[in-house]
Amino acid sequence: MTERPIVAVDPNLINDLEWRGLLANSTDLDALRAELAEGPVRFYVGFDPTAPSLHLGNLVQILTAKRLQDAGHVPYALVGGATGMIGDPKESGERTLNSLDTVKDWVRRVQSQIEPFLSFEGDNAATMVNNYDWTAPLSTIDFLRDIGKHFPVNRMLARDVVKSRLEQGISFTEFSYVLLQSMDFLELYRQHDVKLQFGGSDQWGNLTGGVELIRRATGGKAHAFSTPLVTKADGTKYGKTEGGALWLDPELMSPWAFYQFWLNVEDVKVGELLRIFTFLTREEIEELDAQTAEKPFLRAGQKALAEHVTTLVHGRGETEKIKAAAAALFGGGDLHSLSVPTLAAALGEAGAVKLEKPGSIVELLVASGLSKSNGEARRTIAEGGAYLNNERVEDPEFVPAESNLIGGSWLVLRRGKKNLAGIEIG
Length: 426
Prior knowledge:
Elements: H1 13-19, E1 25-26, H2 29-38, E2 42-47, H3 56-70, E3 74-79, H4 100-114, E4 127-129, H5 132-135, H6 140-146, H7 153-157, H8 160-166, H9 172-175, H10 177-192, E5 196-200, H11 204-218, E6 223-227, E7 240-241, E8 244-245, H12 255-263, H13 267-277, H14 282-294, H15 300-314, H16 316-329, H17 340-350, E9 352-355, H18 361-368, H19 374-382, E10 386-388, E11 391-392, E12 410-415, E13 419-425
Parallel strand pairs: 2-3, 2-5, 3-4, 5-6, 9-13
Antiparallel strand pairs: 1-6, 7-8, 10-11, 10-12, 12-13
Helix pairs in contact: 10-11, 12-15, 13-14, 13-15, 15-16, 18-19
C-alpha cells in the first residue's frame, strides 16, 4: 500500500458541499470532516455500465468527485464491469441482463466520459478501476465464505427496494447486488487505503453495506455520504425528457438539446441546479439568484446554467456553436456559417420535416406546420411575416433554389419572430 501524498487540502470542503445541497446522508459527518481536514483522503465513486452512456444523475457524482479532487483528495473512479453484468435492483422490476461483450464496450464508453473531468496526473492523480478485475477470478465458495457470511439476510430483506419487489419477485442475482458493491469498497480499502465512498441517495443501502463490511471483515473504519436525487419542482426526476434520458453522449442527446434542457429549467429550481452542476462561486450564484428573483424574464440564471454545464460536458467550442445557432435561427446571425450537425439538431428540436424537393413558400409553410392552410400561409406572406433563411419572402409563388439550401439540404422557415421550423430536402 502506497503512502498518502503530501497535498494541501481545502478545509472548507464539507461546508461547500453542504451549501451546495450535496449532502443527503452521512455515516458520521463530524468524523469525516476531521479526516478530510487532516490530509488527502482516498475516495471512490462507482458507475455501472448498464447503458452506453452516463446521464444527468451520474453527472452529479462526476462533478462531486471533481470537487473533492480540486480540494486535494484522491479519486478512484470505478466503472463496474462486474456489477454492470447484474445491475442494481430497481423498484419497477427485474433488469435485462446484457452480454459480457456489450458490458465491456459500455465500460470503455463510460470510462471515456469520466476521464475529461478528473486529473490523472500530479500528487492526487485519479485512478480508474474496474471491479471485473477482482470479481471475475473469485470462486463462488470464497465469495460466500469471505463476503456473504457478513450479511444477515434479515437486514437485506429490510432494504426498501427489496421490500418493494418481494411481492412481484426479485431474483437472487439482483438480491445479491449489495454484496458485490460492498466487496468493491472492501477491496479498495485493503489494496489502496480508500476510506470514503459516495453516491446518490438511492444507493445509501449499498454505501452503508460497504462501510459495515469493512468494519466486520477488518475492524477498520470507513466513511460514506450520499447526494440527493435531483428532482423537478413537483418532485419527479429530472432523469427523463420526451426524447429519452438526459444522456451525456452527444450521439444520444445532441449538445443543442442538452443546452436547451438547462435553458428551460423552472425559475424555482435554477439556484439549486447552479449549486449542484456548476463551479461558479457562492457570490456569483447568489447574484444570479437575486437576478432570477427580481427579473425572471431575463432568465439570467438559466443562461448561466446552460452555458456552464454544456461547456463542462461538451466543451467551450460546442457551446459557442449553440449560442451562434440560436442567434442565427432567430435573425441575429448568418445561417450559412453554422455547422450542419448543430443546425440539424436545432431544427430537429424546433420541428423539422423531410421533403424530396422544395415546393413554393406557401406549400413549405403548410408542410412544416407553421400554417394550417394555403390561405393562412398566403395571409402570413402578405402581412410580411414569412421568412426563409432569415430573409422575408413576399412572393407566395417563390420556390427555393438549390443555392438556398444550407449545408446542401436544409431550409429554415420562420413565421413571425418566434415560430420556427426546418425543412430537410433530399
